[in-house]
Amino acid sequence: MNKYTEDDLREELKTQEYEFGFYSELDAETFPKGLNENIIKAISKKKEEPQWMLDWRLDAFRIWQEMEEPEWANVHYEKPDFQAISYYSAPKKTDPNKTLDDVDTELLAMYKKLGISVNEQKRMNNIAMDIVVDSVSVATTFKKTLAEKGILFMPISEAIQKHPELVQKYMGTIVPKTDNFYAALNSAVFTDGSFCYIPKGVKCPMELSTYFRINEGGTGQFERTLLIADKDSYVSYLEGCTAPARDENQLHAAVVELIALDGAEIKYSTVQNWFPGNAEGKGGVYNFVTKRGICHENSKISWTQVETGSAVTWKYPSCILKGDNAIGEFYSIAVTNNHQQADTGTKMIHLGKNTKSTIISKGISAGKSQNSYRGLVQVHAKADNARNFTQCDSLLMGNACGAHTFPYIEAKNKTAQIEHEATTSKIGEDQIFYCNQRGIDTEKAIALIVNGFSKEVLNKLPMEFAVEAQKLLEISLEGSVG
Amino acid sequence: MLKITNLHATIGTKEILKGINLEVKAGEVHAIMGPNGAGKSTLAGVVAGKEDYETTAGLIALNNEDISEMSPEERAHKGIFLSFQYPVEIPGVTVTNFIKTAINQSRKAQGLEEMSAKDLLQKIKEKAALLEIDRKFLSRSLNEGFSGGEKKRNEIFQLAMLEPKLAILDETDSGLDIDALRIVANGVNKLKSKDNAVIIITHYQRLLDYIVPDFVHVLYDGKIVKSGGKELAHELEAKGYDWIKKEVSSL
After folding, report:
1. Do A434 and B158 touch (CB under 8 A)?
2. Taking CB atoms and an 8 Å limit, are A455 and B92 in contact across chains?
3. A423, containing H or E segment
4. Least CB-CB distance to A438: which of B50, B109, B162?
5. Do A439 and B84 touch (CB under 8 A)?
6. Which tens digit of pLDDT belongs to each residue from A284-304?
7. What is the CATH number of domain B2-249?
8. HSE (CB half, 13 Å, CA atoms) of A135?
9. Interface residue ranges in chain A relative to chain B, Cβ cutoff 8 Å
10. Facing residue for B109 by CB, picked from A433, A439, A451
């Protein structure tokens, strides 16, 4: 029998007439490349989704087809071929024959520097974990505690089935399908992500992290996260991992929506360390993310991000300060080295009265990289007494990199108070020599200076994350000063 | 302890040091004086290993070991400390964190374990008391927003914490009022011992009223043109550097 290839399958897909029957036969781990309505139907079928979800996806797909890839960002890259991507990959299973000896030694060395446990290393490389009582009990206790408080925390696909009323009520309300090219694409094809609901008045007793999410099969290419904090609740959510993620998927387009109802507080922390490409600028992930939250009356959303990975980053975690007295915060460290490009920042949209926002952005550029801050502070006509404070600091290492700042300020209310501070500095040879003279070698000196520069943001991260993030900054900049 | 033999150094194509000979023994305090542009700070920089300078001839030996090819941090690990004329700011890095890093890097180079938090704290307490330093000062960012006096006291505090064999004080008196000068000088005097040595680089005699040198050297046009005891400093103060210049040109 001739080998049945992906090309054959693609041909067949083009000519398939009946809608679902074929796909139930299809038990492939990975879908054929390309994107069309049939692929979206197949994704929906795989996920056993209700009809409304499929309709929603198809609508997004139609919108996406009408859209053009944006070009306004200060990044240059070869545009992805959307027909050359496979849009579904089954969660990776652990390979019983694989051991840590099969893992790239360079990667293992990196784990060691980051102080990542052996079990964690195995998890990240899809190696079956040893049965450790601790980790099992942690997970169990974790699940139990959350259930007692009525907190829902599960993969988004599970939520679509189990809590359709919540998903239907909120999904796409903050980042609509029509929002932008990548958000539309994500809406059509997302296969993974988290759903979280904190009931009224509940203070989530622990940091929620994707690490603890049960039944999680690695991070997806098109992630979709929906987090709802009901009235007067509190949650701190951690996303990402400090370990380097060598993903073969070149394009990542995630959507995150946060809803803080009256009096609620959401703290959302991210460490992004996707493969940045090699020193020559080959390979690396394109990270095009839409993150946005809405703050109702007296509520607060705080975004904290440490971005060290990806070849190209395009990301603006934002807050819509809809209710009176709402607070939005954005704390960011973006590191670019070698040929990396980052265009990142935030949008603070002041709609309610007495709304406040704070933006602290720290950009660090080394090598031949380009690092841009892009931010919008918008005060609408009815937003009396809105206040914003923005501080953008750039640190340059060497002479071949670039730092750029694109702040946009729009105020339509005379009572608005908006402050913007910006600095650009360079790690000086005199600073390095000063450290050297005290016995501190150049690599360590740079780490010290960079950590000092980033301190205001690092302090906003949950403790254990902050320590890892600090190490990550050091590793990302290794060898950046010759 | 330190032996400099026929040291020549250039910056770019310009020769700054033109054959320096100097020997400093343990327990001694040497003062190097001279007019602006004589090469005083260059000498300090070359001994500490600053890369802006190129050593074209000569030897620098510390305890009979040639250090002239070593990196600045290796020299620091061997016990050389330079108190900077213009200490740099490192925003966001506290004085304590900086000193902790410096101590542990040196310990690491010597194959020792990191200093425990308890020991470090004890040492900080002790040295801060010795130098009359308010410990609140230690949680501020290194040199950021420090007054001239605070910067120099911070240098001496680091000297106290790192306990080097040889301390080079480069124009430590510049920019200090008389009270700050006395505090800094007292600090240095308290840290002096028979096992370490101090080189004071200064333009004026006034610091030497507080830290009394065993030897005074006059540096002029890249060479040590005159050496003597502490009375030489007074003579310079009275007669000015023109006297030296005339004496040199008449040779």
Report:
1. no
2. yes
3. strand A417-426
4. B162
5. no
6. 788 899 999 999 999 999 999
7. 3.40.50.300
8. 13
9. 428, 430-431, 433-442, 444, 448-449, 451-456
10. A439
The ipTM estimated for the assembled molecules is 0.95
Domain boundaries, chain B: 2-249
d(CA A253, CA A221): 7
Please count the helices (runs of H) and the strands (runs of E) in chain A. 13, 19
**In Å, how far are A240, A446, B73 from A440, measured between CA atoms?**
32, 10, 6
Point out the residue among A435, A437, A442 whose CB comes nearest to the CB of B48.
Answer: A437
C-beta separation of A434 from B88 below 8 A = yes
Nearest to A257 by CA among A331, A320, A191: A320
* Partners of B184 in the β-ladder: none
Contact (Cβ atoms closer than 8 angstroms) between residue A450 and residue A395: yes
Distance CA B76, CA B45 (A): 12
Q: In this predicted model, what pLDDT tens digit does every residue of A68-95 receive, in sequence order?
A: 888 888 888 888 888 887 787 665 554 5
> Which pTM does this prediction carry?
0.81
For A197, which DSSP code? E
- Chain A: closest CA distance from residue B65 (Å): 18
Of B88, B92, B101, the CB nearest to A431: B88
**Distance to chain B for A405, nearest Cα, Å:** 21
Vertex B121: Cα angle to B117 and B124 (nearest 5): 140
CB–CB contact B162 A456 (8 Å) = no
With CB atoms and an 8 Å threshold, state whether B72 touches A436: yes
Specify burial of residue A181 (Cβ count, 10 A radius: 0-12, 13-18, 19+).
middle
What does the block give as tokens for B187? 């600090």
A318 three-state secondary structure = strand
Tell me the backbone φ, ψ of residue A337, rounded to 5 degrees. -135, 170
- A:B CB pairs within 8 Å: 70
